[in-house]
Amino acid sequence: MKLAGSVFLITGASSGIGAELARQLLSRGAKVALVARNEANLQQVAAKYPEALVLPADLRIAASRAAVVEQTIAHFGRLDVLVNNAGLGQYAPSWSARPEDTRHIFELNFLVAVELTQHAVPQMMKQHGGLIVNVASIAGPVTLPWFTLYSASKHALNAFSDGLRMELAPVGIRVVSVCPGYVSTDFQSHVLGGRPPEAIRRGKAFAVSTPECAAAIVRGIEREQRTVVTPWYGWFFVWARRLFPALIDGILTKYNQQLPPAA
């Protein structure tokens, strides 16, 4: 699809992947609505781009989800691409996670994306086309045991993308699923709790940069790819998990911190 002139709504746009994606799209002539809770950070992202629309909102509040879509359409007159990027993690065993944290993870990582999509699709149908971009994670197709609930929420988002793609194909609305690997962002400082195993923390040296990740997403949007895995060699990990599940489970178990059984 053509980026210049297209209208994007990006959630989680105040930092990390979302902020860099917004910058790259704006520099290519796209019209972008930036959504996140931190208005100051959003203003920094939009500083060089007066045409950007800053929409501070807490998407955990149901009314905010409809509002950001409505405000984007009211301002730009249309909505071409919805990027569901907002997300949250937790480095904690699933068996001991607090119920409220579990609900929080699934609310932001999955349910918010579903509801925003439900608000955006009717407008896209009126336009006879559009694109939904769901930023999941490589932790969706490959469950990471130090990140089990996060993985489960991203697996749900990938499944939603697959079903949505088939549902909307007849009306010309496409769906792109994005599965980043380890990306150099401040994601770890915003998790609900815990920390990854030390071996995984050391592995940050092999992380893809935020600009590289955003560029891969931009290419995926331009080409309307079904799935974007970044870095590209993450596909080997995905296919290894599909072909040799017991082997990959064993390797990941060794990486994971050993925890005592539940009492």
Describe the structure.
Strands 3-2-1-4-5-6-7 form a 7-stranded parallel β-sheet, sandwiched between helices. α5 links the parallel β5 and β6 (173-180). The model is unreliable at 259-263 (pLDDT under 50). It is built from 9 helices and 7 strands. It is globular and about 50 Å long. It has helices at 16-27, 39-46, 62-76, 99-127, 148-168, 198-202, 210-223, 234-243, 245-255, and strands at residues 7-11, 31-36, 53-56, 81-84, 130-135, 173-180, 227-230. The protein has 263 residues and is α/β, with parallel strands linked by helices.
Descriptive labels:
263 residues, alpha/beta
What's the topology here?
Layout: E1 7-11, H1 16-27, E2 31-36, H2 39-46, E3 53-56, H3 62-76, E4 81-84, H4 99-127, E5 130-135, H5 148-168, E6 173-180, H6 198-202, H7 210-223, E7 227-230, H8 234-243, H9 245-255
Parallel strand pairs: 1-2, 1-4, 2-3, 4-5, 5-6, 6-7
Helix pairs in contact: 1-7, 3-4, 4-5, 8-9
Can you summarize this structure?
This protein has 263 residues and is of the alpha/beta class. It has helices at 16-27, 39-46, 62-76, 99-127, 148-168, 198-202, 210-223, 234-243, 245-255, and strands at residues 7-11, 31-36, 53-56, 81-84, 130-135, 173-180, 227-230. The chain is globular, with a radius of gyration of 18 Å.
Q: Helix fraction? A: 40-55%
Total strand count, please?
A: 7
Can you count the helices? 9
How does the helix and strand content classify structurally?
alpha/beta
Strand content: 5-15%
